[in-house]
Amino acid sequence: MIEDIRKHDKNFNEDKFLSKVNQLYLMIIDAIKEDDLESIEYCVSQPFYRNLLNEYTDNTIGEDVTILDTKIVDTQLTGYFITIFVEIKTKWNDHIRDEIVTLTKFNDKNHPRTIAICPFCRHEVTSEDGNKCPSCGQITDMQNYDYLITRIEAK
User: Fold this and answer.
1) Quick one: how far is CA 75 from the chain centroid?
2) What is the architecture, at CATH level 2, of domain 2-108+146-154?
3) pTM to 2 decimals?
């Protein structure tokens, strides 16, 4: 499975990737707690971000979260996308939760719909925009896009 990922993402490092998943997961939880979803917009897909905005209209998460285990359980390499499914086991006070975190990365930098997130205003930028953010006008380096969280669901 990891070798399949490396065929399409030659710099892929499983340990660093899983560490990043843990960090992003906790960032999302903190953003919900602090009612600051804007702070995570750059690391999640726009549909997932809009879903978070609709689901969490207040900071209803008051529990401490500890990550117990994280592992890659599946991959999907289709067309222009690399999708990695990660099982994350967490402890919320005394309750154990198993969730699947889905992350997707665009696989082909030459695809006309390659998307990056503008580091200045966090707006989506496509190569069709000429790498210029349509919102703030800044030039965005399309080679620096990364895996975005597209979904978190109970296992």
Assistant:
1) 15
2) Roll (3.10)
3) 0.76
